Amino acid sequence: MAAQPKDQIHQLITMNRQSGNTYTVKMKDIPSTFVGIPVPSSGDPEKFIMDVTNKETEEENRIIEANIADIESMEKT
């Protein structure tokens, strides 16, 4: 996955609130990828929330919230 501009990523996440598409998300400085449905955070427009579906166990926290600026790339799954 090639790095994408922040504005493009922000637009994808905003549009995904309605479409609900699944994406593979690569974060900066984190070697693994996350798969899930990213949507904008209701509390901060610069953050997103994602229910991660590629976790190994159901017991782990599956909801993540992170800064959109920390996303390196997103690819529709």
Structural account:
This protein has 77 residues and is of the alpha+beta class. Helices cover 18% and strands 39% of the residues. The protein is built from 1 helix and 5 strands. Strands 4-3-2-1-5 form a 5-stranded antiparallel beta sheet. Strand 1 and strand 2 form a beta hairpin. The chain is globular, with a radius of gyration of 12 Å. The chain starts with 5 loop residues before the first helix and ends with a strand. The mean pLDDT is 88.
The structure class reads alpha+beta
Please give the share of residues in helix.
Answer: 10-25%
* CA(first)-CA(last) distance: 12 Å
From the alpha-carbon coordinates, what is the Rg to the nearest angstrom? 12 Å
Mean model confidence by pLDDT: 88
Order of helices and strands: HEEEEE
Low-confidence segments = none
Task: Describe the structure concisely.
By secondary structure, the chain is α+β, with helices and mostly antiparallel strands.
Give the SSE layout.
Blueprint: H1 6-19, E1 23-27, E2 33-40, E3 47-52, E4 63-67, E5 71-76
Antiparallel strand pairs: 1-2, 1-5, 2-3, 3-4
Note the main attributes of this structure.
globular; 18% helix; single chain; 1 helix; alpha+beta; 77 residues
